[in-house]
Amino acid sequence: MHVPRLPNKKFVGASSMGPRGDVIAQMDWITGEVMNEIKKLGLDENTLIIFTSDNGPVLNDGYDDKAVELLGNHKPAGPFRGGKYSAYEGGTRVPTIIRWNKTIKPKVSNALVSQVDFYASIAALLNQPLADNEAIDSENLINTFLGKTEKGREYLLEESYTFSLRKDEWKYIEPFPSNANLPNFMANKGVEGGFKHSPQLYNVKVDNGERNDLSSQQPNLLKEMSLKISQIKEKAKRDSH
Prior knowledge:
Layout: H1 18-40, E1 49-52, H2 89-92, E2 96-99, H3 117-125, H4 142-145, E3 156-159, E4 163-167, E5 170-173, E6 200-203, H5 219-234
Antiparallel strand pairs: 1-2, 3-4, 4-5, 5-6
């Protein structure tokens, strides 16, 4: 729900969380209207629908709309630590629902994917070739998105003022440079950023709240993931596969 949160008058008071909750209700209604129209036009079995978010949630984003005061028991990031702007999973792990009636069978997938991969995946779906220097970080995971396989990425790079790397159940957060400063607007966000001057390593399968830093116990994995980030930064063209 991006700021300024300004619900249509039809939805004012639709929730107990003020404007933020009201625009969530409004988005839900709008999504339903789009879905209904697609079905009404007879395109329901020929339309791939992707519903997702560009980042994790944020409550205080510069507007006095009482999003913090009226939050109640709602946990916008669920069990994950942090939120928008954060290096933790709450900042970069986002909800994603993909629907293609009669083509995708309903299921939950734990495959590691990125929104960046929509580019190469949809290109593959449309038999559209990509140049070596085009969308170089995008991987063709169309079979993953269509639910035909649980295989996803081997590595996933994340960025939030510092770099993080996911591999299987592991999450590595690169040290934040000691001579760098965060933007001034971060001061009042109330978001746990995770920006530390030392490396962090978490097993997000058993510790999805990223509370138990295992960096001192896994020196080899720490080194491997740090090196992989450097290799990704130097990447200049698409992988052959």
